[in-house]
Write a structure and sequence with these properties.
The longest helix has about 110 residues, at about 30-140. Helix 1 runs antiparallel to helix 2 (about 30-140), helix 2 packs across helix 4 and helix 3 (about 195-205) runs antiparallel to helix 4. By secondary structure, the protein is α+β, with helices and mostly antiparallel strands. It has a four-stranded antiparallel beta sheet with strand order 1-2-3-4. The protein is rod-shaped and about 170 Å long. The protein has helices spanning about 1-20, 30-140, 195-205, 205-225, and strands at about 145-150, 155-160, 170-175, 180-190. It starts with a helix and ends with a helix.
Length: about 230
């Protein structure tokens, strides 16, 4: 571009020298016109070439600017995508940590419940043994029979209640809940006060009184049937 500027400047200088500066030799009008036309044509062609080159330079600059903007847009998109992936990764890591903590707490809770269940089961077995020992004291006097059923349940069968049939059975099933509480069920024949007997034995832990009350209730029921 500097060389083109210098060439254009030389043409202008030549034009000035030939047509503006004074000269000792006066050229003819035709020579002046021809020289003027040639100089003007050279200057015009040089300016036109200069303009075309400038336009090409502007187009190139615009293309480079567009490419730069496109590259910047792509870089921003990639940065946004990377930031989104990082956020997702952090969220997954946080969820994983929370899940691990929750699983750990669940395992501790399950282990604790298992220990309690084992302890209650062991305590229930000990209580069943005590019931069996206590019940043997009533067996001969009250005609009581104890049957061990599935699920650590005991069925107490009372006889010698009905004077007309001393072998007629009156029964009730007694077991323990997971919390170690007495539970009465399946009385045959059914008794109305079974819920109250269950409440009392849970409060007093007096199993002998429970058996006595059950026998009295069966005897009263037998009398009512008569």
């Amino acid at each position: 571009m500097m060389e083109d500027d210098q060439g254009l400047f030389a043409l202008m200088q030549d034009f000035r020298t030939r047509f503006i500066s004074p000269s000792s030799e006066e050229p003819s009008p035709q020579e002046i016109r021809d020289s003027y036309r040639e100089t003007l044509r050279n200057v015009t062609e040089s300016c036109a070439a200069k303009q075309q080159e400038g336009e090409r330079t502007i187009e190139r600059v615009q293309e480079l600017r567009a490419d730069t903007e496109e590259q910047n847009r792509r870089v921003e998109e990639k940065q946004d995508a990377i930031l989104q992936e990082i956020a997702k990764l952090k969220e997954k890591q946080q969820l994983s940590a929370e899940l691990s903590d929750h699983i750990h707490k669940l395992r501790e809770e399950i282990a604790h419940k298992r220990e309690l269940a084992l302890a209650n089961r062991k305590a229930n077995k000990e209580k069943l043994k005590e019931l069996q020992l206590s019940a043997t004291l009533f067996k001969e006097r009250l005609g009581l029979e104890i049957r061990k059923l599935r699920g650590d349940r005991l069925q107490f069968v009372f006889r010698c209640i009905n004077p007309k049939d001393l072998e007629e059975p009156y029964s009730c099933i007694i077991c323990f809940t997971e919390d170690g509480e007495y539970q009465l069920s399946d009385c045959d024949p059914p008794l109305d006060g079974i819920a109250e007997y269950q409440r009392k034995v849970r409060e007093t832990k007096n199993f002998s009184a429970l058996l006595t009350n059950l026998r009295k209730s069966f005897a009263a029921l037998c009398t009512q049937v008569k």
